[in-house]
Design brief:
Layout: H1 3-17, H2 19-26, E1 30-35, E2 38-43, H3 46-55, H4 57-66, E3 73-78, H5 94-98, H6 127-138, E4 147-150, H7 157-171, E5 177-181, H8 182-194, H9 198-205, E6 210-214, H10 223-238, E7 242-247, H11 259-265, E8 269-272, H12 278-295, H13 305-312, H14 317-334, H15 340-346, H16 348-355, H17 360-371, H18 375-379, H19 385-401, H20 406-412, H21 418-434, H22 436-450
Parallel strand pairs: 2-3, 4-7, 4-8, 5-6, 6-7
Antiparallel strand pairs: 1-2
This protein binds adenosine-5'-diphosphate and magnesium ion.
Adenosine-5'-diphosphate is lined by residues 115, 119-121, 126, 151, 153-159, 284, 317-318, 321.
Length: 451
């Protein structure tokens, strides 16, 4: 085979593997010879030899055959280094050149020292997620991969992931643990592309033992990042490495995420952190108050203050913590016992905000669950009655329970017009008078949402 045949085949490969893959994996290949039906390519690193032979060998061979090259197999050999000029040292043996490169520093995000299992308060809404996180942190054979944690803002996803990282590092210090947000993953990826460091990038990400990617919904709609994420993910799963992912919703509900990624994410264990309930909120408040009082022994709470907060502040633990912190600061300034009055005065704005605690998304989720339809259908285009009616119920509740305007509600229902929302709201108002089943459903849902 002549080198210009390879030149032509390369052009076709560019089309079939895409520009990114081509630049990273095909471009650097050099055809050295075709011997006895074996096309031998030289590649710069052993990592690359491995990767190309696992991922692109078949494609390359197919194209070679199509171009009538006399090849029935392809091989990738690591190119020996250029001999050192004027050196009396013996040349390094080929094996030395192939020796794995020392893995570089991991490009992870720093861990918050407070986010440990010890500091995580367990209650009904998060017990499953907590148990799964504990199991993963114990190490040992990988039983579910990935562990996918999802739930609303401030429910403890990041906390649990950091806790897994801390625990893994303590138990198995030799393991390479990498934690970062999906946004940081994208940033590193783009940087590597720009600086032509894709090989290093891939090498680093494929060398970890535990990979954690937080807030993966961020890469939805970002095509080349998704692609790279998918390959990283598969490479690690193939090697039996543990992956932990978090998102603000279930894999199937993330819009603009490729189907193959969704299905991969669903392959392991998917657990959700439910919105906190009263008991869990009180537990968290008590734990944090205790810790604070250990530092400032003079601090006193009047009876019922923590209970009041647990009742009145929304499900988001971050808001809860913020409120408590403010209260502590205030109390230590004025040097008084924290009474209910003081609490209400000091937290007036937060309390007012959490009065409007029901969101359109929660309503959609609850209503979908109640009628056993998919959340995606709730906001999707289907118009069959079995879906349209629950959708109208959700619109009605959104109008009743939130302060959103009709156009705002429409937008949250897959970009529907405000007149559609108005029609839905009216329809349910009418039906409530004539259809007792609908009236019961609406009442039950309202109570559940306001609880
Ligand atoms: P998410 O990543 O789900 O948005 P975070 O993990 O950042 O939420 O949690 C928000 C804050 O609430 C953090 O300060 C975290 O320590 C705290 N937090 C959440 N859940 C718990 C819990 N069960 N026990 C103690 N603290 C919690
Ligand atoms: Mg988070």
């Amino acid at each position: 085979m002549k080198n210009d045949t390879w030149g032509r085949v390369k052009q076709q490969l560019l089309e079939s593997v895409g520009r990114n893959n081509f630049a990273n994996w095909i471009e650097p290949l050099e055809l050295t010879k075709v011997d006895n039906g074996v096309a031998v390519f030289s590649v710069p690193t052993s990592f690359m030899a491995n990767w190309v032979s696992r991922n692109f060998a078949d494609t390359i061979l197919t194209h070679l055959k199509a171009a009538n090259a006399p090849a029935s197999r392809v091989e990738f050999k690591v190119a020996a280094h250029q001999p050192q000029p004027a050196s009396s040292e013996p040349k390094p043996a080929a094996a030395a050149v192939v020796a794995p490169v020392e893995p570089a520093e991991l490009p992870g995000a720093p861990l918050d020292a407070r986010f440990t299992f010890d500091n995580f308060v367990v209650g009904k809404p998060n017990e499953l997620a907590h148990a799964a996180a504990r199991r993963v942190a114990e190490g040992g054979p990988v039983t579910f991969n990935p562990l996918f944690l999802y739930g609303g803002v401030g429910l403890g996803k990041t906390h649990l992931m950091h806790a897994i990282a801390h625990e893994t590092r303590t138990r198995n210090p030799e393991l390479r643990v990498l934690y970062l947000s999906a946004e940081q993953f994208m940033y590193r990826f783009v940087q590597a592309l720009r600086d032509r460091q894709m090989i290093d990038f891939k090498q680093i990400f494929r060398s970890v033992d535990v990979l954690m990617v937080d807030d993966v919904q961020f890469i939805a709609g970002k095509d080349s990042t998704q692609e790279e994420f998918f390959h990283t993910f598969n490479a690690l799963v193939d090697q039996g490495k543990q992956i932990i992912i978090s998102a603000d919703r279930a894999p199937g509900e993330i819009k603009n995420l490729e189907d193959r990624i969704k299905s991969r994410l669903q392959c392991g264990l998917v657990v959700d952190l439910h919105p906190t309930d009263y008991e869990l909120r009180l537990g968290i408040l008590q734990t944090k108050a205790e810790a604070y009082r250990a530092q400032y022994p003079g601090l006193q709470f009047a009876d019922g203050v923590l209970e009041f907060l647990a009742h009145r502040i929304s499900t988001n633990v971050r808001v809860l913590e913020g409120a408590l912190m403010r209260l502590f600061a205030f109390a230590s300034l004025v040097g008084r016992e924290i009474t209910l009055d003081l609490t209400q005065e000091c937290l007036a704005d937060i309390l007012k905000q959490s009065d409007r605690k029901v969101t359109v998304e929660e309503i959609q989720r609850k209503v979908s669950e109640h009628y056993a339809i998919r959340l995606s259908d709730m906001i999707g285009p289907k118009r069959v009655r079995s879906i349209a009616r629950p959708r109208q119920v959700a619109m009605y509740l959104a109008k009743q329970l939130t302060s959103r305007s009709l156009p705002e509600i429409g937008r949250r229902f897959g970009g529907r017009d405000h007149t559609t929302v108005m029609h839905g709201v009216r329809r349910i108002e009418e039906l409530k008078g004539t259809d007792s089943q609908i009236a019961d459903d609406v009442e039950m849902l309202r109570r559940a949402l306001e609880a």
